[in-house]
Each structure stands twice: as C-alpha cells, then as structure tokens.
Automatic annotation (TrEMBL):
It comes from Candidatus Desantisbacteria bacterium CG2_30_40_21. GO terms for cellular component: cytoplasm. Pfam families: DJ-1_PfpI. InterPro entries: Class_I_gatase-like, DJ-1/PfpI, Prot/Nucl_acid_deglycase. Residues 7-170 form the DJ-1/PfpI domain. This is DJ-1/PfpI domain-containing protein. It comes from the Bacteria.
C-alpha cells in the first residue's frame, strides 16, 4: 500500500466561501495514505464552504512556515480570490517552491500561484474563468483536469478534486 505516513500538508482555505469538495476530497485522500493535515486561513474564525460545510482553521496563514510542511494546498471556491494578490500567500508559495516542497492549487486558486510568479513557463490548469489570468502571467494553460509540472500541481475544479488529492499523494512519495 502506498503511504505518505508522517508527511505534513498545509491546506489553505478562504476565510469564507471555500469550495467544500476541493477541501474535503483531497484531504480524505491524503489522510487515507497517512498524511497529516493542518488548516490555515487569514482568520481563525470558522470558515463556511459554498455548499454549507464549516471548517475551523488551525493556524493563521501569516504564522505558517514553508519549512514545517511537505506540501501546501490552496483550496478553491469564490473566496479563494482573497489570496490572489496576498503577499503572505505569495511568499509562502515561493518559499515552498524554493525548498522543493509540493505546491498545489485547485479551481481559481492557481491564480494565486500565477500572481506569485510561480507558473511562468509552467504547464498549468485552472477553472475556465481563470484561463486568461494564468496565460497573462506566462503559464502554459493545458485545460487538463489536473496538471503536474515539477513540484507544482494545479487542478481545474471540484470535478477533479479526488484526482488532485491523488496527484499530491504521488508527488509526496518522491
């Protein structure tokens, strides 16, 4: 059985309006293989998902350190746009890439990675409404459900959430 026992994964959710499936499905896949999940957000208040779920973050995004995690996951949903131009989110993503960590984003959240300069020249995917934003930052948009380019994983929406989680598990095995 494939295991990523002890691998630490930071899930970054919006302070409100994260996409439920894009949080719970990859989380379930990663935990089933032994991964340890920590949830970060811009607030420690309970965050509401667009489909009614509620999640209590463990840490503030501003307190998360790239060196403490093996992977980071930017969860999508309409609220995730709060991180598109967020310096703290950009720094965490850039530091994670520099340290060779897995950096991933789903739905419209890949725009955060693009705006941080991490998708320039990289194959990536995004929810269709974000296509032009990715291309404008130099990403090679593929339209795939899940795209892996080196240690960066992107996915296009809730229909790809489980495969997104599986891609993160695969990347963590390396």
């Amino acid at each position: 059985m494939v295991s990523i026992a002890g691998k630490k994964v930071l899930f970054i959710i919006a302070s409100n309006n994260f996409r439920d499936e894009e949080f719970f499905e990859p989380k379930q896949v990663i935990e089933a293989k032994g991964g340890i999940i920590t949830i970060a957000s811009s607030s420690l208040n309970i965050s509401g998902g667009v489909r009614g779920a509620t999640v209590k973050p463990d840490v503030l995004l501003s307190e998360a350190k790239a060196a403490d995690y093996d992977a980071i996951v930017f969860v999508g949903g309409g609220g995730s746009s709060e991180y598109w131009d967020n310096h703290t989110a950009h720094q965490l993503a850039k530091e994670s890439v520099a340290l060779g960590k897995v950096v991933s984003a789903i739905c419209i959240a890949p725009i955060t990675l693009a705006n941080a300069g991490l998708l320039n020249g990289k194959k990536a995917t995004v929810f269709p409404s974000g296509t032009e934003r990715l291309k404008a930052k130099g990403a090679i948009y593929t339209g795939a459900g899940v795209e892996v380019d080196g240690g960066i994983i992107t996915a296009n929406g809730p229909q790809s959430a489980t495969k997104f989680g599986e891609a993160i598990v695969t990347a963590l095995q390396r």
